[in-house]
Amino acid sequence: GYLISMTWHAARPFDRGHVNFRHQTQGKFSKEQWAELVTEGSEMHRMWIEQVDSIAQYLKTLQENDVPVLWRPFHEMNGEWFWWGDRRGENGFTVLWKMLYHRLTDYHKLNNLIWVWNPNNPRKHPVDKQMGYELYYPGDDYVDVLGADVYHREWFQDTHDQLVELGGGKLLTLGEVGELPSAEQLASYNRYAWFMIWTDFTADRYNTIEALRDIFGNERVLNHK
Q1: pLDDT of residue 119
Q2: In this model, does residue 138 exceed pLDDT 70?
Q3: Phi and psi, residue 65, nearest 5°
Q4: Which range, 93-97, 165-169, 198-202, has the best average confidence (pLDDT)?
Q5: Cα gap 43→40, rounded to integer Å
């Protein structure tokens, strides 16, 4: 009776073995390597296909057991900290997203995936930049749900409203949050269907027990009992 959400913190296509988050998921990936990745028939593309196919086997197990998945790969693509991040233009991130979509949907025939496209909320910090959503949006045919990740209490109305406009009526989510919104903010950002608190952010230094009770006891929030 549950929906599950899965985030894929992918290693680089040539990485193998146990994934080291900082050195692989956040590892260096040059413009030349990216160009090879999005070129069908290249060695980098072949390694990426191998990587995706290994993931597909687990997703197929879920499909065989009638488990739908809120599938959230390559998130926060409008930031600069993941190897797939801030890749703009006609051979940028949208190509990678479509490659993944077609490999899992057309080749592996997976029909249990609900595709969640999930950037970070745009801001322009000197050392922590996130760019506008529209630069990385692959198009309505490749996205079921649009989301935003919000940290540092940066609750801005236009973060929500830009997603509403870009999605044109599609479901919205807060894919990751650190500090929770207030009840008043939650009411203002009224198109978000669900939120997920990131690891350890239930600690008191981020969200007090009073704040947690305020949100989970809010009339807008449904809880499993």
Answers
A1: 95
A2: yes
A3: -105, 20
A4: 93-97
A5: 9
Q: Which tens digits make up the pLDDT trace of 16-26?
A: 888 889 999 99
Helix, strand, or coil (residue 174): strand
**157 CB neighbour count, 10 Å cutoff:** 10
Q: Which residues pair with 125 in a beta bridge?
A: 128
Catalytic, out of 43, 90, 176, 179: 176
* Residue that has been written with the tokens 């479509």 in this structure: 98
| Cα–Cα distance for residue pair 225/222, rounded to 1 Å | 9
Q: Structure tokens of 85? A: 């991040």
80-87's contacts with Cβ under 8 Å and 24+ in sequence apart are 80/128, 80/129, 81/26, 82/9, 82/25, 82/26, 83/12, 83/24, 83/25, 83/26, 83/27, 83/28, 83/29, 84/10, 84/29, 86/129, 86/131, 87/34, 87/136
The yes-or-no answer on residue 176 being catalytic is: yes
Q: Which of 36, 50, 64, 76 is catalytic?
A: 76
Q: How many CB atoms sit inside 10 A of residue 8's CB?
A: 15
Whether 185 and 157 have beta carbons less than 8 Å apart is answered as no
Q: pLDDT-derived band of residue 131, with 50, 70 and 90 as boundaries?
A: confident
Rounded CA-CA distance 127/225 in Å is 43
